[in-house]
Amino acid sequence: MQDQPLLEVSGLRVAFPTARGYVEAVRGVDFSLRKGEIMSLVGESGSGKSITMRAVMGLLPPAALARGSVKLLGRELMGIEEKEIRRLRGSRMSMIFQDPLTALNPVLTVGDQLTEAIRIHQPRISPKEARERAIELFRSVAIPYPEKRMDQYPHEFSGGMRQRVVIAIAIANRPDLIIADEPTTALDVTVQAQVLELLSELCRVNNTGLVLITHDLGVVAGMAEKVSVMYAGSIVERSTVDDLFEHPRHPYTRGLLGSLPQMTGDIGRLSDIGGAPPTAATIPAGCAFNPRCDYAVDRCRTETPALETYGPTHVACHLAHTLPEYAEQRKTA
Ligand SMILES: Nc1ncnc2c1ncn2[C@@H]1O[C@H](COP(=O)(O)OP(=O)(O)OP(=O)(O)O)[C@@H](O)[C@H]1O
Ligand code: SF4
Ligand SMILES: [Mg+2]
Does 64 reside within a domain? Predict the structure, then answer.
């Protein structure tokens, strides 16, 4: 089907056991992604970004309890057998993590790891064909001298080159969906830009959907079409990148964009907001952001706001309909 979303996440909740019973780290997340689309997921540390996307991949810690719906090209993934989700991982969807060293096996050559990734999902391919395909993949991620580099071990590669190997493994079977969880944070700044450019180019060429978790607003602005902002386990605002940067509605989003210089040059990282975010066990009643929000009213302490639609933006704030104008007036008063 032409218009079928690539990924549809609805009502996703994830809870962890604690001494005081289960506490929810992801509290009802909804979003969708089309083929070839790039969405950024942003929010402070502990807001639930990684857990949300691990739930999509079926990669949660065993103690975690997940509910809700995750559909990949219309197919429900929640509750399917482990064997089946393992088959989909690496073939239809793959995940790239922050630290390429933990993703690679130190005692196998990078070539063996890449050919293994190819052969596990394409068992009929011959070793020679798998090696040729691996060399071609190394070439596509701009690893110089790919034939020679195939026989080296991860420690012989720089951080940036290692992350290219991980990207080559992630795209080896031309997945429909890639989830990249802060894929370049461990790399130095110039290498970060090259690796991200490569990843977005590969997604464009292959029409792969990409969810990119990042703390870097410059990356969001430069790469993504859509953005979702998470706070305390929920998406509090989601929109197109253009609209979110131009008209952020949620006070939390406005706070994150607070240090945003004009939309030129280095946009920078998420801004610090006064106070600390709650942990999963200490999320307050009402709007989870209320203890830190300058605009909070009584209702915010008792009633949880639902996501409502304003043009291309969906925002969960009781005052979202008045806030941009109100904030503008306060600024000029
Ligand atoms: N294995 C676990 N056991 C119990 N609770 C966990 C576990 N992993 C995560 N959590 C809880 O889930 C919350 C969300 O964690 P998550 O790793 O998704 O945050 P994040 O938004 O990715 O943060 P960061 O930006 O630091 O990577 C954490 O604050 C923590 O309370
Ligand atoms: S609902 Fe209330 S506390 Fe929450 S962000 Fe909106 S104004 Fe602030
Ligand atoms: Mg994380």
Answer: yes
Q: Is the CB of 46 under 6 A from ligand 1?
A: yes
User: Is residue 236 over pLDDT 60?
Assistant: yes
Which ligand has the shortest distance to the CA of 307? 2
Return d(Cα 26, Cα 63) in angstroms, integer: 14
124 assigned to some structural domain: no
318 lines ligand 2 (CB under 6 A): yes
199-218 per-position pLDDT tens digit:
999 899 999 999 999 988 88
CA distance 44 to 157: 31
240 — pLDDT class (breaks 50, 70, 90): very high
Residue 139 lies in a domain: no
CA neighbor of 55 nearest in space, from 99, 85, 97: 85
CATH number for 81? 3.40.50.300
> What's the domain range around 252?
7-107+153-332
Question: Tokens representing 60?
Answer: 């949660």
CA of 58 to the centre of ligand 3 (A): 16
The rounded distance, in Å, linking the Cα atoms of 37 and 48 is 22
Give the whole-angstrom CA distance, residue 281 versus residue 198.
39
Residue 146 falls inside a structural domain: no
Query: Rounded to an integer, what is the distance from CA 327 to the centroid of its chain?
Result: 30
Output the six-digit token pair for 246: 């131009």
User: Per the structure, how many domains does the chain have?
Assistant: 1
**Ligand 1 pocket test: which of 29, 42, 44, 47 has the largest number of ligand atoms within 8 Å of its C-beta?**
47
How large is the greatest C-alpha to C-alpha distance in the chain, in angstroms?
72
18-60 tens-digit pLDDT:
998 999 999 999 999 999 999 999 999 999 999 999 999 999 9
